[in-house]
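in:
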């Protein structure tokens, strides 16, 4: 479970992040559904969490995806251009066929494979985070996802990190938010015409009516 607590109370408890990470006060930056595996970033810095997870910053997420079937160039082209999903068109992605990752750990439970249908590994890179997006993208091109591993978030990767382990990283410098645009200066008020002590208006402009006395 990519959470510190299992909210399901009516069944056998499932392993959570607290089974592997003894570091209080941190929380995930970004989502990872419970059927997926791979890299998660944890932080106690709200500004950093927002910067990592907010799609407007277009931080690239790299996934290793084992799909059912063998996607052809047309299917890969659709992934690259954008896939029309129920919640809108995805941003253009990068997609390519890859070899099975070296030293890959066994999955628990194992994926369901059918002898008559081959499987293929595809590397997919996206810059947004719709719910179960990669799974829906591959299903849309006729190649359902069997196994999904997030390999990288930005420049952070799984390299050198064993399964179920964590490492303390140096946080990056988060860009400062843009300052709000300044309001245009107010137009100066037209000065009021001075009045004499006797109540008449001091003016010599043409067209002015004659001053009145109180």
């Amino acid at each position: 479970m990519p959470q510190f607590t299992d909210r399901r109370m009516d069944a056998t408890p499932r392993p959570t992040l607290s089974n592997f990470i003894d570091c209080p006060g941190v929380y995930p930056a970004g989502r990872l559904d419970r059927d997926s595996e791979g890299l998660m970033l944890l932080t106690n810095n709200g500004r950093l969490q927002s910067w990592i997870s907010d799609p407007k910053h277009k931080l690239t997420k790299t996934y290793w995806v084992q799909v059912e079937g063998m996607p052809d160039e047309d299917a890969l082209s659709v992934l690259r251009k954008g896939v029309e999903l129920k919640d809108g068109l995805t941003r253009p992605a990068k997609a390519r066929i890859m070899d099975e990752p070296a030293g890959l750990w066994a999955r628990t439970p194992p994926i369901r494979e059918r002898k008559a249908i081959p499987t293929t590994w595809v590397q997919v890179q996206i810059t947004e985070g719709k719910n179960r997006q990669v799974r829906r993208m591959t299903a849309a091109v006729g190649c359902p996802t069997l196994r999904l591993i997030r390999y990288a978030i930005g420049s952070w990767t799984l390299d050198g990190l064993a399964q179920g382990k964590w490492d303390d990283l140096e946080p990056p410098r988060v860009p400062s938010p843009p300052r709000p645009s300044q309001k245009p200066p107010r137009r100066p008020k037209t000065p009021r015409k001075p009045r004499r002590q006797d109540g008449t208006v001091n003016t010599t402009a043409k067209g002015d009516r004659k001053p009145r006395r109180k």
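note: Residues 28 and 42 are 4 Å apart (CA to CA).
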